Amino acid sequence: MASRDNVKCHPSWTQTGPSTYSQPYGFQEVLYNAISVTPGSPGLFLIATSATFRYIPSSPDQRVSSHDLVPRLRDAWIQLRQKYPGLAAENRPDGKFYKSPSSPSDLKDWLDTTFIVTRGKTSAEHWKTMVKARQMTLNYFPEEGQLFIQGEHHILDGRGVMNIWDPLASPTTEALMRADGSEVARLPPRSDDLLNMAEKEPGRGEQRAQEILAPLASIQKPIFIPVTQPLPVCSLRNSVLELKASPRITESIISECKAQHLSVTASWHAAVVLATQSVQRQRNLATGAEVGTEFATFGNFDLRRYFPSPDAASPPDAYALGNHHCVLPYVMAPDDKTFAQISKELASYYQQDLPKADPEIWSAMGPMIRAVLPDFVRPQLEETTPAVSSFGVVDNFISSSYTDVDGKGAWRIDDVWFGDTVHGPWLECFLWSWKGRLSLNTCYNSAYYNHAEVDDFNQLVLDKMLEGLGIGVRGQAPKL
What we know:
Blueprint: E1 14-15, E2 20-23, H1 27-34, E3 46-57, H2 66-83, E4 90-92, E5 95-99, H3 104-114, E6 115-117, H4 123-128, E7 137-141, E8 146-152, H5 158-163, H6 165-168, H7 191-194, H8 204-217, E9 239-244, H9 247-259, H10 264-284, E10 295-302, E11 325-332, H11 339-350, H12 354-357, H13 361-372, E12 387-393, E13 401-403, E14 409-420, E15 428-434, E16 437-444, H14 451-469
Parallel strand pairs: 6-7, 12-15
Antiparallel strand pairs: 1-2, 2-5, 3-8, 3-14, 4-5, 7-8, 9-16, 10-11, 13-14, 15-16
């Protein structure tokens, strides 16, 4: 058994007590801290993911009830915390706070707080009224065979949300977590600790940040979705609508993208741009307002590809769960361009090697986040340009079947879902594929859009994608 005194944590963490540790926020987390709310309150950009599953016993004679699965799920959650203790950190105003269990009762208290079995309620109902939890929380809804993980962006980014399911569904025969402090050695570093954030010269990081953001300030005719003015107060309930393309349509899209040397993600983003412009054109008919010509977005970039290899004492997937992404602005002018040209332009943006394209990029990250922060802490958020984020092929991260640790059965994953909460008048658009079907998933706030409007937008995006790729599509005018 390891001695707590002999366990060393990453130097970005400071021991503040016999079993407590703190870590200042990294450049990404500064934004999430600014918009953070107290536990139990609705909040912006709270993350969520769910998996619908069936447990299949290896023998037809065995019967396993939902009650029987609870201990297995609890043990898997404990093992996940042992391997990735950062999941149990609290996000406090001055940084992350972690308490290492000093006794079995400490571990039980954490488990009772963060593993919740809810009967008589669906995960969809839970999502609608989801509020901030103090720590990452695993909810189990037995009637629908669904697990629902919720938390804050401080802890996980999009890649981290995808990565969490595989280790959770793959518990080992190792002993469960011990209250000996050994897990502290695996408290995660920040992106700041893994990249060279140094300025070329004093003040240059701030200057480069302003240069990166400059295109946003020079937009003359933005493409956005006009909404009712004055803006109503946002709803505190969470809304989402997912459109799943059929396997046939999905196969056609992927095949045509390959034939035209286009990225599926970039083609979808191009379709979002064109769909937004179409909706703007239709809504502006009544007012005579001009239609926009420039679509501004913040693209998400996974930073893990730029990190050094973990040291020998770290697990090989040390960076799998964490908040290791950055966002960068981009302005797209679609007029007088073909769909393929728009898609290829966006693909070049997404596929760029960031430090190769801009050697000063890392030094600008912190100043850039601080510069845009005021736009997210206003009492009334006003942005109505859809946000876009692609998860890619989820099958590369989550298997459809996992053998149980004791070999007595298997976990079959039937469906997965990802989203976050929106407290402003924009559509939060996600794309992923799972089991041969593309999912266009849009989180939104019902104070600004109704179900039918978001359904129409999702379908319009799919139609624009099919049309742009030259795939047969039913013709419909936008109804949003």
